[in-house]
Amino acid sequence: MPELPELNPVIHGKLRLALLSLLAGVEEAEFTWLRAKTGSTDGNLGAQLMKLEESGYVAVEKKFVQRKPQTIYRMTEAGREALQEYVQALRQLLGAAI
Amino acid sequence: MNANAEEMDLRERLDLMQKMINEGRRKQESWGWTFVLWGIAYYIAFFWAWLGSFPIAWPITMGAGGVLTFIGFSRRQYRVPETTIGRAIASIWIATGSSMFILFDAMGFGLHLAEPRAFFAAASAMIGLANAACSLTLKWKAEFLCAIVWWAAAVIACFTSLVTTVVAFLVAIFLCQIVFGAYMMVLESRQRRQVASHA
Q1: Does a structural domain hold residue B126?
Q2: What is the Cα–Cα distance from B52 to B56, expressed in whole angstroms?
Q3: For residue A3, is it within any domain?
Q4: Measured distance CA(B188)–CA(B61) in Å, rounded
Q5: Domain count, chain A
Q6: Smallest Cβ distance to B10: which of A23, A40, A94?
Q7: Chain B interface residues facing chain A, Cβ-Cβ under 8 Å?
Q8: Per the domain annotation, does A5 fall within a domain?
Q9: What is the pLDDT of residues A5-63, one digit of tens each?
Q10: The whole model's pTM is what?
Q11: Among A22, A32, A40, whose Cβ lies nearest the Cβ of B24?
Q12: What is the ipTM of this complex?
């Protein structure tokens, strides 16, 4: 029997998975846009984004636009690879479950 | 967690990913209101010109449409993130809108529209071109149907009377701007509800 793959625990969290999936479809996104799309609170969203940043899956850039602070997130190459591996593992697990 | 619940949980995650990726990619649907706005603007310009103010009706209405579009975008609650496809779609419409604005102003003031059917043929063909380019970029068949309707209006303008040309133009505006724009708005609100219930 083939060994079943393990799911990456950093990506498996629902909000982190939603964030990486959102970032996979765009070049970069503002904190406020991610908050609007996920319906998450500032605190929870910030904590999950920090975990993704610590894992090297997202890169953050802080800047001022018209004197207003903006926090921009973009997915890194490592994040893209990790998400692809996660999807493959998920499909394998689902294939095994059927 | 038993095997069934675990499988449901995994499927839910796959579903969530798909919805979020689509949400990031959603772009043209969020422009549905601009299609409706410009459809109404064309009707206003057309009937204003018909009432006898042709030289000013189109430039003023199109200028007002541009200002309203700009206000509409700046009033959005959050900045829409940039995607390559989104930028391509925006480029197509900005380039088409600018070309139409310049050409039709020049035609109106310079040529005094010696042949009005040429105006309708050029306008229909250019809007058809923008719709076709967007539909091919997005692989969206519904929008390609709009392109076909606009191209048909352009051909009709070249081979029929002015009255028939005008009717074809008005029908194309109604179908491809107002009805299609409303359809995009419905799609967008449906997608928003789905994402909100999932996140």
Answers
A1: yes
A2: 10
A3: no
A4: 27
A5: 1
A6: A94
A7: 3, 6-7, 10-11, 13-14, 16-25, 77-84, 195-196, 199
A8: no
A9: 788 999 989 999 999 998 987 888 889 889 988 889 999 999 999 999 999 999 999 98
A10: 0.67
A11: A22
A12: 0.73
